[in-house]
Amino acid sequence: MPARCLVILLDGLGDRSFPGLGNQTPLQAARTPNLDDLAAKGINGLFHGGRPGQALSSENAHFTLFGYCQTEFPGRGVFEALGAGINLEPEDVAVLTHLDGVVRDGDRLIVNAHRPRIEPNQAADLFGAVAEFETDEVSVDLHPCGGPDGIIVLRGELSPDVTDTDPSEVGQAIIEPEVFRNAAHPRRARRTAAALKRYLTWAHRILDEHPVNEDRRRQGLPALNFLSTHRAGQLRPVTPFLERWGLRALTISSGLVYEGLGRYLGMDTWAVTDGPDPGRDLAQRIGLAADRLKDYDFIHVHTKAPDQAAHTKDPRTKLAVIEELDQGLGRVLPDLLADPETLVVVTSDHSTPSGSDLIHSGEPVPLAMVGQGVRVDQVNRFDEISAAAGALGLLRGDEFMLLVLNHLDRAQLVGLRQAPQPTPHRPRKRRPFRIEES
Ligand SMILES: [Zn+2]
């Protein structure tokens, strides 16, 4: 039986059909002999982290893939802050931000440049000018994270239950920070929204008159004069991955959000960087994982490449990236598949449509699982349509982790009560019965 699971996660892999590709998805149209070989050797199905039709973000989809409920979700701001090495206190609120260009329309601010590329020295100057701010009750720190992106950390008695200000579209108005109707702590949420409004207003005035933006205007470029915010988060108690699933875990990935999610769940994390060849990157990451297989029970190897290719809105770009990834897999898969102790899974977190205004879309993604004892179905292609004919059917949410436990022979029989807190895995420790001497 396999002793450990390696999950190869191809981010945003799922897509829609395109007439230019013979009404196929980029994954269907791509030449992927190595992924197809994997599909032919194991069991196949579809996966959706929530409910089909729901367009999940990477952080929400990964959170459920790792077997956690959306009701436990702390907000992406937390993951990115932890990934960036920011020391969050329990009542801090971390909000994602990026530089946008805005123009006035009466008292509204209309986005005319959304998260554009920016020279590193310009970003440093602009972020540096608005790095710190204080109100009577709240202090604000801005942490640059590369390019136009940053993280705003608000300190005080606060709540993350406030709306985004980022409309995520050019031509739309910046959104007022508002309190959620179901906010758990309305007073704290009002305090947070008010502090954010004051900070963003102050920062807008400073950025608008900044010499970097004067220069940009002279060059005919939009001034980057607003910090749009989104996905506020706050730490909350969470059961570590080891405790919940009984598995020692490692994540190998290149984005702050994945590293931060790993840290949040108590996984070991290995940050890698993206090079020009995603196939080579993926092969290297799987090579790193292969070297550490003895130290872990669950290793997540991530590539963002298909998602990024889909955001170019060109299905052929995505098709080409998928073929590069398949070639990378070809260098490392034979050894992995020959190892009887490793359960190999290839899947994705969500679909990212190459031909839509949607950021992500709600179709499920293919999943193939190969390992000793795993049933072998009749699917021999790895794509969204072929996978639907697989023996797994549609897996949702934490069903994926339950299936992993099952194939590692670690699933606890439902009904046994060997610990005060029932777990889906066989308990690592049971409290021994002790004889009481009378
Ligand atoms: Zn994703």
What does it look like?
The protein is of the alpha/beta class. It folds into two domains: 239 residues, Alkaline Phosphatase, subunit A (3-Layer(aba) Sandwich); 153 residues, no CATH class. The protein is built from 13 helices and 14 strands. The strands form two sheets. It has an eight-stranded mixed sheet, sandwiched between helices. Strands 3, 4, 5, 6, 7 and 8 form a six-stranded antiparallel sheet that branches. The site of zinc ion has 6 residues, from loops. Zinc ion binds next to loops.
Features:
14 strands; binds zinc ion; alpha/beta; globular; Alkaline Phosphatase, subunit A; 438 residues; eight-stranded mixed β-sheet
Tell me the overall shape: globular
Bound molecules: zinc ion
Mean pLDDT: 96
> How many E-type strands?
14
CATH class of the largest domain equals Alpha Beta
| Discrete helix count | 13
Classified in CATH, the superfamily of the largest domain is Alkaline Phosphatase, subunit A
The figure for the number of domains is 2
**Residues in helix, %:** 25-40%
Strand order of the largest sheet: 10-9-11-1-12-13-2-14
Roughly how many Å apart are the termini? 46 Å
